[in-house]
């Protein structure tokens, strides 16, 4: 079968012929219906080197995947060949306290995981191929009625990651509150939909690109702002001077983290999701009082089930553009150039 593989750090992926996987005991092979292209893949191609992460290339890209059960290893029960499924992406040890409650994104025994701190498309072979080998049936989540794998694929990361980030801040998002989404790309546009579907907060979306701001409006943003010098003032004046109860930064650069901290309301949340390499100096008077600042990584399996439910009911509908495996690199080029709207999904 064909697979889009990252051969080494700081290199371009290659479309190559590899063996079709066969499942060992407890394993599942998924026929890929859609594999989302994440900006993290661009970071993998350009920003990391040996020692940056606990694993290294080569591996097949694609860490947001959905499709159909293709083959079951010995002992797997509860799944049927042909059944539509999503792949839960962060692969933990399955046995530690975190994994037991489905939060494998924060596995506490990574040495016992299939790969420490990674998964398919992140150190092990992912979904940008005709088939993906999933090392345990618990990582395969049946799709609810009517949810197409091409839409389910981006929900496993571009949906799950903002869902986890927003869900933890629900108590700070009652009616009358304001949420700010910085960066309305693959994750951010679903983030706006999640805020709309699960909270009554007023949503302000911030991006550098007009097309992204138009997409934010389509997704339910109440107000859109061009990212720049004056954005903090605009957020403050839109909130009666108070600032935003929750700021979600899907860029994570110096400038956006500084903007997010300055635009937050006292006792608010600033959640950094983007891996843009930025940092934020925090001192007593440099951020509003009692603002909680956190990074978040992906989401839990129970949260994925909730996200898929929202997707199957039409409450979340990622804006997708599909590409063939042959054309996968043009998806990444468009993402890099800022000409992609929403999420690119590779359909092998
Ligand atoms: P994307 O390229 O689809 O979207 C990024 C968006 O940010 C674009 O719309 C771009 O115009 C906008 N942007 C860039 N600079 C900006 C600025 N200064 N101000 C406002 N907007 C700006 O990327 P994506 O796939 O949505 O991923 C976003 C980030 O999240 C990436 O860094 C990715 O690696 C990271 N990520 C993190 C997790 C996690 O678990 N923490 C999971 C997935 C992705
Ligand atoms: Zn990702
Ligand atoms: Zn674990």
TrEMBL record:
It comes from Micromonospora gifhornensis. The keyword Membrane does not apply. Gene3D superfamilies: Medium-chain alcohol dehydrogenases, catalytic domain, NAD(P)-binding Rossmann-like Domain. It catalyses: a primary alcohol + NAD(+) = an aldehyde + NADH + H(+); a secondary alcohol + NAD(+) = a ketone + NADH + H(+). Belongs to the zinc-containing alcohol dehydrogenase family. This is alcohol dehydrogenase. Residues 2-346 form the Enoyl reductase (ER) domain. SMART domains: PKS_ER (SM00829). Keywords: Metal-binding, Oxidoreductase, Zinc. Pfam families: ADH_N, ADH_zinc_N. InterPro entries: ADH-like_C, ADH-like_N, ADH_Zn_CS, ER, GroES-like_sf, NAD(P)-bd_dom_sf. Its cofactor is Zn(2+). Its EC number is 1.1.1.1. It is an enzyme of class 1 (oxidoreductase). The keyword Transferase does not apply.
